[in-house]
């Protein structure tokens, strides 16, 4: 599904649209789901009266009360454990971990409990919960506030993993995640919270997990990414377009499940693939995408699949522009693939 198709569907539904940023889209999704379903509860460190460190939950406690939107102690293991217990007992918890870097203390609860409860109970119990967390760099937060740990969770069967890059997707994917019956890790690229702006329909809608968005169509090269790197992919595609190169830009939107069909069809058309993420390169999720491409589109490849990623180092405090795969590194990788 393309972003253009998303907007067409909104127009066909007979609703207007308005322009908001990504964090406003998150807030709206939470507000609407709290209003729609009394089983939804929202909690985490400072999410109540303060509205969260990035103000994503501002005003929700005042509207829905302290029983449904509340603060927790600074204990990620307790936050996740409480979410699992609530979900098993029939609620729809949305837990916030203040930064993705802080998910470590709750890791066992996520991978050993939330991810496995459906299987270990023979389907008697499910864990319909969402863990929201700001992720990635670009805000000079250093190595404790800028990591991209999505590959840990994409590797765990039983979890769904999402990372939007536009307000439309952030709202639609979050609403779909809350309504689903599986645990979802919902990474929010913090550098896009206020930088990403776009049209969002006035009416209720969801975006199905596992469907990529084709942001731009092209025939010479497939440029594939997700989350915070997407504006840089667009800038690289613009630079290449000025030289007459047609780049197809694909936003995965969700990693588990991910849209293999759209990716493979694109690479079969273009013959070249450049995969971009800001996580460290070793064991990067994009290695899985590369495997599927070479396995299902090998005969179409005109050049090796190329990956542009963060470096295998702790995230530096002040060197965001060097660490992150910006438009210059992405463009250079594309030129290399085109000249192969």
UniProtKB/TrEMBL annotation:
Its cofactor is thiamine diphosphate. Residues 20-195 form the Transketolase-like pyrimidine-binding domain. Coiled coil: none annotated. InterPro entries: THDP-binding, Transketo_C/PFOR_II, Transketolase-like_Pyr-bd, Transketolase_C. SMART domains: Transket_pyr. Keywords: Oxidoreductase, Thiamine pyrophosphate. The keyword Acyltransferase does not apply. CDD domains: TPP_PYR_E1-PDHc-beta_like. PANTHER family: PYRUVATE DEHYDROGENASE E1 COMPONENT BETA SUBUNIT, PYRUVATE DEHYDROGENASE E1 COMPONENT SUBUNIT BETA. This is 2-oxoisovalerate dehydrogenase subunit beta. It comes from Deinococcus aerophilus.
């Amino acid at each position: 599904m393309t972003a253009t198709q998303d907007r067409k569907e909104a127009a066909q539904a007979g609703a207007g649209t308005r322009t908001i940023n990504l964090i406003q889209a998150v807030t709206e999704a939470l507000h609407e789901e709290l209003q729609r379903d009394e089983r939804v509860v929202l909690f985490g460190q400072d999410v109540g009266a303060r509205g969260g460190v990035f103000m994503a939950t501002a005003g929700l406690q005042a509207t829905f009360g302290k029983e449904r939107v509340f603060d927790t102690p600074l204990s990620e293991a307790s936050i996740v454990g409480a979410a699992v217990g609530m979900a098993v007992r029939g609620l729809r918890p949305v837990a916030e971990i203040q930064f993705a870097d802080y998910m470590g203390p709750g890791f066992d609860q996520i991978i050993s409990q939330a991810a496995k409860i459906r299987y270990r109970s023979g389907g008697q119990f499910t864990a319909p919960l969402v863990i929201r967390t700001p992720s990635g760099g670009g805000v000079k937060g250093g190595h404790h506030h800028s990591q991209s740990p999505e590959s840990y969770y994409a590797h765990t069967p039983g979890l769904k993993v999402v990372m939007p890059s536009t307000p439309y997707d952030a709202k639609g994917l979050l609403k779909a995640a809350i309504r689903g019956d599986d645990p979802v890790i919902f990474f929010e690229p913090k550098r896009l919270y206020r930088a990403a702006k776009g049209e969002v329909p006035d009416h209720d809608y969801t975006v199905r997990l596992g469907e990529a968005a084709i942001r731009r169509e092209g025939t010479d090269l497939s440029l594939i990414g997700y989350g915070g790197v997407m504006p840089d992919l667009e800038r690289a595609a613009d630079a290449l377009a000025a030289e007459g190169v047609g780049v197809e830009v694909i936003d995965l939107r969700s990693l588990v499940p991910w849209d293999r069909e759209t990716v493979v069809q694109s690479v079969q058309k273009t013959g070249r693939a450049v995969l971009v993420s800001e996580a460290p390169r070793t064991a990067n999720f994009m290695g899985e995408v590369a495997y599927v491409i070479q396995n299902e589109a090998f005969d179409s490849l005109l050049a090796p699949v190329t990956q542009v990623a963060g470096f295998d180092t702790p995230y530096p405090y002040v060197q965001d522009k060097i660490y992150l795969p910006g438009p210059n590194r992405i463009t250079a990788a594309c030129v290399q693939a085109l000249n192969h």
